[in-house]
Specification:
The complex is a heterodimer of chains A (415) and B (209). With 415 residues, chain A is α/β, with parallel strands linked by helices. Helix content of chain A is 53%, strand content 7%. In chain A, the strands form two sheets. In chain A, strands 4-5-6-7-8-9 form a six-stranded parallel sheet, sandwiched between helices. Chain B folds into two domains: 2-76, Orthogonal Bundle (Methyltransferase, Methionine Synthase (B12-binding Domains), Chain A, domain 1), CATH 1.10.1240.10; 88-208, Rossmann fold. Classes of the chains: A alpha/beta (415), B alpha/beta (209).
């Protein structure tokens, strides 16, 4: 009897995940997710090591892949390149060895005002100009020289001569040098990612992502205004915010479109500020959902399957976010009650999640199995479920994670 | 004019509120009365937050107004000790390794609006700092905030450190953060978990009654 080939395994896994994602019946419920620090913990590698030693990161991810066998894999992409970030001088980020002493600390972004309220018009007029000339110098020490130049839209006709004056300054020259050094290091990290993707494919595992994205509101809030300011902007300058959100929606579609044509055309949309504590239902309906929905529809139109990674409890938003084409999108659950989400969306939108992370860390395998059983039973055999942890998996007991995988594979068969 | 000011602040009319404060100061009104009006407005804001009319955006704007009014008024206050009755003292912070602060700030706001004295240690707070501050200010309650899964173990370490310092019996400990649930308090060794700011206030009032 011939053994199944890696290509056949690859095709099987792809078909299983695509069927579940589009609410059609696969052979069984898939299990996978963005396991962030967990693979390194499992392999006995610190997160600092994983961020600095790309070969070690790949090795740890292979160990995780071989033991747990997720349907589709993330690999080492979430272990960001520490050396490249050091060389580029990322000021708005802390990571183990850079602002965080614990070698297993999770990297974190320093939320802040990187665009003032007075700069909305500048951003709306020329987003690229703003990002290069104002935002990048504020975020990266290596890029401070970009602040010294005039806007690059003044390249028109012989405008290059004016620009060349700024290119000749020591500050700009230093920026080019520093960015080149950071880029060379980043290139090594990318080479490591490509190597891993090829190795995983040789074992029969597709990658879980083809593009990353962020909702228009979060593009502005996380990157530019900071959380406090953008939330207050909804009241203080709503008209300006709407204009900027139109621009951010176009950027959202650009970001997410990279997944078009991929074997698994998943664009992961990381949602940060939509939870009920952050804004009222009316504010969600006015500022958050319409722009995100418009962007998601544009991606769906291109044959992309968005994976919307809603954070915290979004139960109060269910009635709004149900307004989306059927069988075209995945919503990740996090803290939202599974049964209520399934009642609103089951069979129409593929739901992903949501074994609680505190259970995966502090509970037992029996607790995990009982949770998986509860949500699988609730679907009553209707397709459109992918099993995963509630949030990005960091600290967890290996036996609990194994229980999530093994139980779902056994109990999640569609008969 | 006092009631007009309370309404302007509570209704989020920032420009009107600041203009009223300036007008009142120019007219020689008692600066303490202005601060009292702002505090009363914060109570209204807190009530509307509990009633889910107001959310984080309104708390942020209310906090900004309170700070701005304080800066305008405080230089004019006569130097006198003002006794403020508090229901109790709370020490709060986000544990070491975690720099998320918004949830903690919402809890701090609601506790202060509900007459608790709050010492906020900020973010990325090591266990030793919690222990030192407990010894210094002798709070009734300690609140531990965290959003990352690494926070579970760090909170556990913090509670252990409080215990080892012989202080555990002197304080009630509550924990919170978006990825937690009731089982988190057991795992961490805390007295209670609260899913939101309202429950933090309810817990605090129950413990200090």
């Amino acid at each position: 009897m011939s053994e199944i080939t890696p290509q056949e395994l690859f095709d099987q896994r792809l078909a299983r995940v695509l069927a579940a994602a589009t609410c059609q019946q696969p052979d069984r419920i898939p299990v996978f997710g963005p396991f962030q620090k967990f693979p390194y913990q499992f392999a006995g590698v610190t997160f600092k090591q994983a961020m600095n030693d790309y070969a070690l990161a790949r090795q740890a991810c292979h160990q995780f892949l071989d033991y747990y066998q997720p349907e589709v894999d993330f690999g080492p992409i979430l272990a960001y390149p520490a050396k490249a970030m050091d060389l580029l001088g990322w000021k708005a980020f802390k990571w183990p060895g850079h602002g965080l002493d614990n070698d297993n600390a999770m990297y974190q972004y320093l939320d802040g005002e990187y665009m003032t309220a007075d700069e909305y018009d500048e951003f709306i007029y020329d987003p690229s100009g703003f990002m290069l000339g104002k935002w990048a110098p504020r975020q990266f020490t290596s890029m401070e020289g970009f602040a010294q130049t005039i806007p690059w839209r003044r390249f028109m006709w012989s405008g290059w001569m004016n620009l060349s004056f700024f290119w000749s300054t020591p500050e700009f020259q230093e920026t080019l040098r520093a960015v080149t050094a950071g880029a060379e290091e980043a290139g090594k990290w990318w080479a490591s990612q490509f190597q891993y993707w090829g190795e995983a494919k040789e074992k029969g595992f597709p990658m879980a992502f083809a593009a990353w994205d962020w909702p228009p509101f979060d593009i502005l809030g996380d990157t530019l205004r900071g959380t406090r300011n953008i939330l207050a902007d909804m009241r203080r300058r709503p008209s300006k915010l709407h204009d900027a959100l139109e621009v951010a929606t176009k950027i959202f579609v650009e970001y997410g479109s990279g997944a078009a044509g991929a074997p698994l055309p998943f664009t992961w949309v990381w949602v940060h500020k939509s939870t009920r504590e952050f804004m009222s239902d009316a504010q969600f309906q006015e500022f958050y959902w319409p722009y995100l929905r418009k962007g998601l529809l544009a991606l769906i139109e291109k044959g992309i399957i968005p994976v919307v990674y809603w954070e915290a409890d979004w139960e109060s938003r269910l009635k709004h976010v149900a307004d989306i084409p059927a069988g075209k999108i995945i919503y990740h659950l996090s803290a939202t009650n599974f049964e209520r989400a399934w009642d609103a969306l089951g069979g129409k939108v593929c739901l992903m999640g949501n074994v609680p992370n505190v259970m995966l860390l502090g509970g037992t395998p029996d607790d995990v199995k009982a949770y998986c059983k509860r949500i699988i039973d609730y679907t009553r055999g209707k397709p459109g479920l992918i099993m995963d942890a509630a949030v990005m998996l960091d600290e967890a007991r290996p036996e609990n994670v194994k229980a999530m995988f093994d139980f779902t594979r056994e109990y999640g068969l569609y008969r | 004019m006092k009631n007009k000011l309370i309404k302007a602040i509570a209704d989020m009319n920032e420009d009107e509120a600041m203009n009223l404060v300036q007008a009142m100061l120019d007219a020689g009104e008692d600066p303490q009365m202005i601060l009292d009006a702002a505090s009363q407005a914060m109570v209204v804001v807190g009530d509307r937050f509990n009633a889910q009319e107001y959310f984080l955006p309104e708390l942020i704007i209310a906090g900004d107004m309170m700070k701005a009014i304080g800066e305008m008024v405080k230089p004019r206050l006569r130097l006198q000790a003002v006794e403020t009755k508090t229901l109790g003292t709370v020490l709060i912070g986000t544990v070491a390794g975690d720099i998320h602060d918004i949830g903690k700030d919402v809890v701090t706001f609601m506790l202060e609006v509900n007459s608790f004295k709050v010492y906020d240690l900020g973010v990325d707070v090591p266990a030793a700092t919690f222990v030192a501050k407990i010894k210094e200010v002798k709070p009734d309650i300690v609140g531990l905030s965290g959003l990352l899964t690494l926070a579970f173990d760090e909170m556990k370490r913090t509670v252990e450190a409080i215990n080892e310092a012989g202080l555990r019996e002197q304080v009630k400990i509550m924990v919170g953060g978006a990825i937690m649930d009731e089982s988190a308090a057991r795992y961490i060794g805390a007295d209670a978990y609260g899913p939101d700011a309202l429950s933090a206030v309810t817990l605090a009032k129950g413990w200090t009654a």
